[in-house]
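[job 0412] stage=complex_fold ligand=S-adenosylmethionine status=START
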Amino acid sequence: MTSTVAPVTPIPLMELTTGFWKFKALAAAVDIGLFAAVHRRGEATAADLVADLGLEPRPLRMLLGSCTALGLLDKDGRGYRNAPPAAEFLVPGGERYFGGFVQYSDRHAYPAWGRLQEALRTNAPTTWDASTQDSAFVAETSSAILENFWDAMFSISSFTADALADAHDFGRHRRLLDVGGGMGPFPVGLCRRYPHLRATVYDLPHIAAKARAKVEGLGLSDRITAHGGDFLADAEFPAGHDVVLLSMILHDWDEPTSRAILRKCHAALPSGGAVIICELVLDDDETGPLPAAMMGLNMLVETRGGHNWTDGEYRDWLTGAGFGDIRTVPMRAAGANAAIIAVK
Ligand SMILES: C[S@@+](CC[C@H](N)C(=O)[O-])C[C@H]1O[C@@H](n2cnc3c(N)ncnc32)[C@H](O)[C@@H]1O
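[job 0412] stage=complex_fold status=DONE, emitting structure tokens
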């Protein structure tokens, strides 16, 4: 009998090894303004783009070929158009512009991942200096990171907010407290979807100021406010909310800190109030899913004690903080694969 088992080949290893080529092609295309230039013309030839971008024909030809093969451009005859993912998310100016995350990853995460072995040996982050700062989020963080990071989070989390609005019925809640809410992508998305809902972004004072400006620019200041504070140092969280959200917060911190945050969420809620943890949650056997495992490794280079924790760990901490009726609702988003919802 002939064997039907496929031979082992190095092809998957080649794909893994050269994965960064794809990322850098995307990052360079965003950075030099390729998708914006194609968008301005609607359809552009290579000659148009040589003129618009000031590149030599040879490298541009290579970049156009790569972006077309990657599914970012469509080619018809000699003309290039933005393919749907690029048209939708990579043209600057749109509220859901994803290029902020691409640029943050290119400028800050990519060099830090270049020092992954060092992070593995020292168990210390490489995106910021843990010998002089308490966390990546303090105002002392380089202004370049400050400029990019929260925009990047807004672009990813706008999509997660939509997925959460589908996964959980906010019709039963009146007032949301978004702990570490950044510039407010969840309050914005959820308040738009649920017209009765009001929300507070609770973040460090310099970020709360950014959230206030963002919310005002989107015309939602009458329903969304921003509260400057420190969820580690503050003894109590802002009161008057019946649902508390922790999106991509607990993965930044170690277990004792995460448990302390959950206890403060519990204290801030009325009986019957809910807490929602939105994360790329790791399976209990820690074999995947891949995005959660890789985000976990990203927490090594980005944080001092963070990790993408398992469903079981979150449930254990929620129970320890006094919550019950815990449900894990699967979600499909770039920034989260589940919402873990618990009730006081
Ligand atoms: C990974 S971001 C998540 C942002 C947002 N929740 C989202 O999902 O898009 C972590 C957030 O926690 C905030 N943060 C970090 N330390 C904080 C602290 N001690 N007090 C309040 N907010 C803090 C950061 O400023 C940042 O906005």
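The pocket of S-adenosylmethionine is lined by residues 135, 137, 153, 157, 180-182, 185, 203-204, 207, 230-232, 247-249, 252 (CB under 6 Å).
[job 0412] exit 0
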